[in-house]
Amino acid sequence: MTSFFNESYKGTPPWDLGRPQAEFVRLVKDGKIRGRTLDVGCGTGENAMLFAGLGLEVWGLDGAPLAIEKAKRKASERGSTATFLVGDALRLETLNQRFDTITDSGPFHVFSDEERILFVKSLRSALNKGGTYLMLCFSDKEPAGWGGPRRVSQEEIRATFTDGWKIDWIREARFESTFHEDGGRALLSSITSV
After folding, report:
1. Which of 41, 104, 181, 185 is the most exposed place for a label (fewest CB within 10 A)?
2. DSSP collapsed to 3 states, 93-154
3. 4 pLDDT higher than 80
4. What's the helix, strand, coil split of the chain in %, to 5?
5. Helix, strand, or coil (residue 14)
6. Is residue 142 in some structural domain?
7. What are phi and psi for residue 55, nearest 5 degrees?
8. CA distances from 19 to 22, 87, 137 (A)
9. What is the DSSP-derived secondary structure letter of residue 194?
10. What is the DSSP string of 36-52?
11. How buried is 33 (Cβ within 10 angstroms: 0-12 exposed, 13-18 middle, 19+ buried)?
């Protein structure tokens, strides 16, 4: 899967808008992004640079080297303090770092059921107790006609984050891309490590 995403960044993939996702802009305005922050699957870094603009220590991680190369270039051009690195979202323990907030704008909905189990363990290794995981993924209410990633139901999210997690809320949202003028139907979740 990493090679697919890396190849996508030879051009401009449909999820790379050249600006942060509107749902994360709203989370910033609502004060939901706090403390040391990790943006998992950061792509070319738009969300991470938004968070760093708050004066937070922010890391962006992506498995696609071309995405990270573009993110570093943008950060340098914009004077952003965000740190970007190539890494595996399923092995966050290799960072040897802990965060207060972890954000996810897309990775969860590309994982298989087996990978989701690994991802939850990976998140636990990097998120402080009491820390928040904020996840935006495509909803099962998004029609399948155009293809795209796997759709996710609220029930799947609840079944994935059980022991050691508290689901604060799951709400309907929009996932912006060049495929949708007004964004695809999505779910935005706030989940706390307890």
Report:
1. 181
2. HHHCCCEEEEEEECHHHHCCHHHHHHHHHHHHHHEEEEEEEEEEEEECCCCCCCCCCCCECH
3. no
4. 35, 30, 35
5. coil
6. no
7. 90, 10
8. 9, 22, 18
9. -
10. SEEEET-TTSHHHHHHH
11. buried
Host domain of residue 103: 2-8+20-134+151-161+188-193
Judge if pTM exceeds 0.85: yes
- How many domains is the chain built from? 1
What does the block give as tokens for 93?
A: 């323990």
Pairing label, strands 83-86, 58-62: parallel
Answer whether residue 183 is part of any domain: no
Contact (Cβ atoms closer than 8 angstroms) between residue 100 and residue 35: yes
Mean pLDDT of the chain: 91
CATH code at 32? 3.40.50.150
Q: How far apart are CA 183 and CA 60, in angstroms?
A: 23
Q: Which amino acid is at 48?
A: A
pLDDT at 42 over 60: yes
165 by DSSP, 3-state: which?
A: strand
Task: Dump pLDDT digits (tens) for 120-174.
Answer: 999 999 999 999 999 999 888 887 765 667 788 999 999 999 999 999 999 999 9
φ, ψ (nearest 5 deg) of residue 135: -125, 130
